[in-house]
């Protein structure tokens, strides 16, 4: 898959995002409306290139190192964007400085005709940053025009850098923070705290509750309990209550590989049981994991079944799956 090019306007949060090696946005505007610029964080993929624009200049070039995932507003933002929703998309990006920095206004004669007609990051005539524009898709020609005559560490950019903000690392940090809050919650009984914390690893009461509903892996059909993981549909860290974290309807029994695909959002399920495969999953990787049928379905092989269904889900499960498709599934 060819890399895409992006442009981010982040005057308010550039220092935090450059230092932290990421981009972050709310999921919606403050009025609840969807934003194309925010949705673009979910469209960016590892290997994509990003131009960082702040204080009227392009100052950094970045390379996306992982797919975006749900994360709370970074603490280092402090009061910046006080009206933003507290839950958003975090996109890991490795940044390297651009020297000298580039003023788009000085190049607007060349840049203007190359900018997208809709959702442009800057005005096609003045070169000023467009209001509400955050992460915008740009053409390779825009990128080449900006970086012509500049220097940046291309070797580091191609390698992606040593970005520590992977999904696994951030997920562990967020779950640790949730666990601390649970332990400090004076309203929860100690037995409930213990059950909720065990549920983080798919153990204890949560697993027992899931096993009263699910009998096998929805993806592979494996029935041996020793080979199955009790996996939350709505992630443990995103649950709002102990009840959600222990609810058997919020769980599936999955083999380890299927659990990883589901947890990371590379697969999901429709309410009727149709297996949904992310467009970002490589066919060869699916085959190497042993999911030949998924690979065939995802890439439209003639011999593949029209739809792979895992059995319909109950209404309570459907509610959790809707959140998985919205907040976890990689589009």
Automatic annotation (TrEMBL):
It comes from the Bacteria. Residues 217-269 form the HNH nuclease domain. Pfam families: HNH_2. This is HNH nuclease domain-containing protein. It comes from Mesorhizobium ciceri biovar biserrulae (strain HAMBI 2942 / LMG 23838 / WSM1271).
């Amino acid at each position: 898959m060819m890399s895409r090019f992006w442009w981010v306007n982040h005057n308010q949060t550039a220092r935090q995002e450059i230092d932290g090696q990421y981009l972050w946005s709310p999921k919606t505007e403050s009025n609840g409306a969807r934003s194309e610029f925010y949705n673009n964080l979910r469209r960016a993929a590892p290997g994509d290139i990003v131009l960082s624009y702040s204080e009227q200049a392009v100052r950094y070039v970045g390379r996306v190192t992982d797919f975006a995932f749900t994360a709370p507003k970074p603490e280092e933002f402090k009061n910046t964007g006080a009206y933003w929703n507290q839950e958003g998309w975090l996109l890991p990006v490795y940044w390297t400085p651009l020297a000298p920095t580039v003023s788009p206004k000085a190049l607007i004669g060349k840049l203007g005709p190359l900018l997208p007609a809709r959702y442009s990051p800057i005005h096609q005539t003045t070169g000023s940053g467009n209001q509400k524009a955050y992460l915008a898709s740009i053409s390779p020609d825009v990128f080449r025009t900006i970086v012509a005559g500049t220097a940046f560490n291309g070797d580091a950019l191609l390698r992606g850098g040593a970005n520590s903000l992977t999904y696994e690392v951030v997920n562990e940090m967020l779950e640790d923070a949730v666990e601390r809050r649970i332990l400090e919650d004076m309203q929860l009984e100690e037995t409930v705290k213990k059950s909720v914390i065990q549920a983080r690893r798919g153990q204890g009461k949560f697993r027992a509750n899931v096993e009263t509903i699910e009998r096998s892996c929805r993806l592979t059909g494996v029935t041996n309990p020793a080979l199955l993981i009790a996996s939350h549909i709505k992630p443990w860290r995103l649950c709002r209550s102990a009840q959600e974290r222990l609810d058997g309807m919020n769980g599936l029994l999955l083999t380890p590989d299927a659990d990883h695909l589901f947890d990371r959002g590379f697969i999901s399920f429709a309410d009727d049981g149709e297996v949904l495969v992310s467009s970002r999953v490589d066919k060869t990787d699916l085959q190497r994991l042993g999911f030949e049928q998924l690979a065939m379905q995802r890439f439209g092989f003639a011999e593949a079944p029209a739809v792979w269904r895992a059995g319909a889900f109950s209404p309570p499960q459907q509610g959790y799956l809707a959140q998985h498709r919205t907040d976890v599934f990689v589009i």
